[in-house]
Sequence to fold (192 residues):
Amino acid sequence: LVAEIIYDEHHIEAFFPERNDSFRKVIKELGYKWAPTELLWYLMINKLNGPAIERAAETGNKLLAAGLPIRVYDPEVRRKAIEGDYEPECKRWVMARVKGEYEGWLAIYWKGYDDDLYRAAKRIAGARWSSPSMVVPAENYEEVLDFAAMYGLKISEKATEIIAAARELKEKALVTGVKVRDLQQENPTPGG
Fold:
C-alpha cells in the first residue's frame, strides 16, 4: 500500500488506502485535518506555512522516514521528499495584530504548548498574553527582534511594516525632540 500526496498552491491532500497508525501520526503532527466526505487528509496552505511544494515534500519525507512508501506525481516534490531537500515549516512567528484591542501591536506566535518560550516572551517590556499569542507594543520592537533572532522566529510582512513605522517614529523623536544649547554662551569661562 502506498501513501499518495497531491497538491496545488492552495492545499495538499494525503491519502492512504487503509487505516494506518503510523500514517495518521505523521499526518496529524504536520497539522493535516481529516475530510470525512472525501476520505482523505488535507492541509490548507497560507503565508505562514507555505509554499505548498515545500509542505508536500516535507510530508513525503516524514512519511518515508516512518517507513511508508509514497506516490508523488510531481518529480521535483518527489526528489525533495527523497533527499530531504525542503525548507521545514516555520512554527514561530512575529506577526501584527491588525484589529481588536491590540491593533498595531506585534504578536509573538508559536504552534503548540511551550512554557519556556512563553516565560521568555513574557519578559519583553510591555508584553501580555492575548490568545493565541503574546502581544508587545510596537515601540518595543528592538526587544522583539532580539527575541526573534534568539528563538528562531520569522517576521511577517505586516509585522515588518509595523516595525519600520515604529523605528521611523523613534528616529524622528530622537532628532526633533532634542534641542542642543550652546553651553559656551550660557556659562562663559571665567576671564573669557
